């Protein structure tokens, strides 16, 4: 069995390596020359240690190769990005062009799988249309499926291998075939359904998380106004057997949660007011935190942003809430420096590169305030010594990590989230 994986990114590359590890002959395809250069030199463009290990092993074994064009195969898997446009519309043009490219290499009887998070109907209408344009009957001649990835950056390999897998076939035959294929390298349950149900359920998962985080953030706003600590209240509410309130924070980042709800809004605008409002609440959190800092009244010319990654202990700054904070600071003419133990310089949506320091004391030296954006373990429990070099005494703790009592006793003003 020869497997062709289109897209050597955060999902496609580890998936390809896991399949090579399971004994398949895998050919990866990517349009990015830098990615291909690293892979062809036997290296891995993703920093996560487990991913690096399995990818470099797969390349060394010869069972994984990569180039800029597909080859003939038996199974084709599309793992390309599905971004949103600047006006929050779903952009499936990369899926379409991947499908158009691979359609020329597909033969009768092949299995074609879309893994990219996609608007409802993409498998049949976008991928299916490109295959039909090559003369295939997409139900009879091929097995076409939607099998969403559920990659959680930081534990990519175990989540690909162990999570339950939704397998949406355009036909029951296609689902059964894909299920047998995933059984070769996935130990979790395999849940066969239709392609559209699979597409919808993937969007539901990430939308559920976004709306729940927005709800937690609203609880945080209420607590701030009422002078209550939201975390104490959440801890108690979560002792109810059917309640799981999420964590309020400084915003929602990453390449999935802030993007995927828009696919439902785009497709079903008349039903998705709640989703739009949740997005607005979560995107507004960095601005909300900055407004709280300003209302503390201390003069601020320069702040240190602690954390560029969108989530703790990751080197991933895609769609980071820190970018929204930077816009808020710039709008007020406030200077900033950024610290992160994992992320080096990162690129904002407007193309600018933001320099990031790794020495915390150096970053804090002489700033008027510090704003914690990421729940890195390095920031947990920080006390007065860590912030001693600051010129001012203001700390906004977007993740409720620092030793608030010790800092307050030492004369710092700590602004938590939701308290
Ligand atoms: N966050 C909060 N409060 C919370 C939980 C998260 O503020 O209670 C923030 C995080 O700090 C982060 C953002 O939300 O900035 C998103 O992080 P996340 O932990 O929700 O997840 P991602 O984006 O890393 O990965 C998600 C996962 N989906 C779900 O948990 C439903 C992952 O399993 C998916 O595979 C991934 O999206 C994807 O690729 O779709």
UniProtKB/TrEMBL annotation:
InterPro entries: 6-PGluconate_DH-like_C_sf, NAD(P)-bd_dom_sf, UDP-Glc/GDP-Man, UDP-Glc/GDP-Man_DH_C, UDP-Glc/GDP-Man_DH_C_sf, UDP-Glc/GDP-Man_DH_dimer, UDP-Glc/GDP-Man_DH_N, UDP_ManNAc/GlcNAc_DH. The keyword NAD applies. Gene3D superfamilies: NAD(P)-binding Rossmann-like Domain. Residues 304-404 form the UDP-glucose/GDP-mannose dehydrogenase C-terminal domain. The keyword ATP-binding does not apply. Keywords: NAD, Oxidoreductase. Coiled coil: none annotated. SMART domains: UDPG_MGDP_dh_C. It holds the Pfam family UDPG_MGDP_dh_N. Belongs to the UDP-glucose/GDP-mannose dehydrogenase family. PANTHER family: UDP-N-ACETYL-D-MANNOSAMINE DEHYDROGENASE (PTHR43491:SF2). This is Nucleotide sugar dehydrogenase. It comes from Glycocaulis abyssi.
């Amino acid at each position: 069995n020869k497997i062709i994986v289109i897209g050597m990114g955060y999902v496609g590359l580890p998936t390809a390596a896991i399949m090579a590890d399971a004994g398949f002959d895998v050919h990866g395809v990517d349009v990015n020359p830098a990615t291909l250069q690293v892979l062809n030199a036997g290296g891995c463009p993703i920093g996560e240690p487990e991913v690096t290990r399995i990818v470099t092993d797969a390349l060394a074994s010869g069972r994984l190769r990569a180039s800029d064009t597909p080859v003939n195969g038996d199974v084709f898997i599309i793992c390309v990005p599905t971004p949103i446009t600047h006006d929050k519309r779903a952009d499936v043009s990369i899926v379409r062009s991947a499908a158009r490219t691979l359609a020329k290499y597909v033969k009768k009887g092949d299995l074609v799988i879309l893994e990219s998070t996609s608007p409802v109907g993409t498998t049949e209408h976008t991928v299916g249309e490109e295959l039909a344009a090559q003369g295939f009957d997409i139900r009879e001649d091929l097995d076409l499926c939607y099998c969403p990835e559920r990659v959680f950056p930081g534990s990519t390999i175990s989540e690909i291998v162990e999570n339950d897998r939704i397998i949406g076939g355009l036909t029951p035959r296609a689902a059964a075939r894909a299920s047998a294929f995933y059984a070769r390298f996935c130990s979790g349950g395999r849940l066969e359904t239709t392609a559209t149900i699979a597409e919808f359920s993937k969007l539901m998962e990430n939308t559920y998380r976004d709306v729940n985080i927005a709800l937690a953030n609203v609880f945080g706003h209420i607590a701030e106004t009422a002078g209550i600590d939201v975390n104490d209240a959440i801890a108690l509410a979560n002792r109810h057997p059917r309640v799981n309130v999420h964590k309020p924070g400084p915003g929602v980042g990453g390449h999935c949660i802030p993007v995927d709800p828009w696919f439902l809004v785009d497709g079903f605008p008349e039903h998705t007011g709640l989703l739009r409002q949740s997005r607005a609440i979560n995107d507004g959190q960095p601005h909300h935190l900055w407004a709280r800092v300003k209302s503390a009244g201390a003069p601020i010319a320069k702040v240190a942003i602690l954390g560029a990654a969108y989530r703790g202990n990751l080197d991933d700054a895609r769609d980071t809430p820190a970018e929204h904070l930077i816009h808020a600071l710039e709008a007020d003419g406030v200077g900033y420096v950024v610290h992160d133990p994992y992320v080096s310089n990162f690129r904002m949506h407007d193309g600018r590169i933001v320099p990031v320091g790794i020495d915390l004391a150096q970053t804090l030296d002489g700033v008027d305030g510090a704003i914690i954006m990421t729940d890195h373990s390095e920031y947990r429990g920080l006390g007065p010594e860590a912030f001693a070099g600051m010129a001012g005494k203001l700390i906004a703790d977007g993740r409720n990590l620092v030793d608030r009592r010790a800092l307050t006793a030492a004369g710092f003003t700590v602004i938590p989230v939701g308290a």
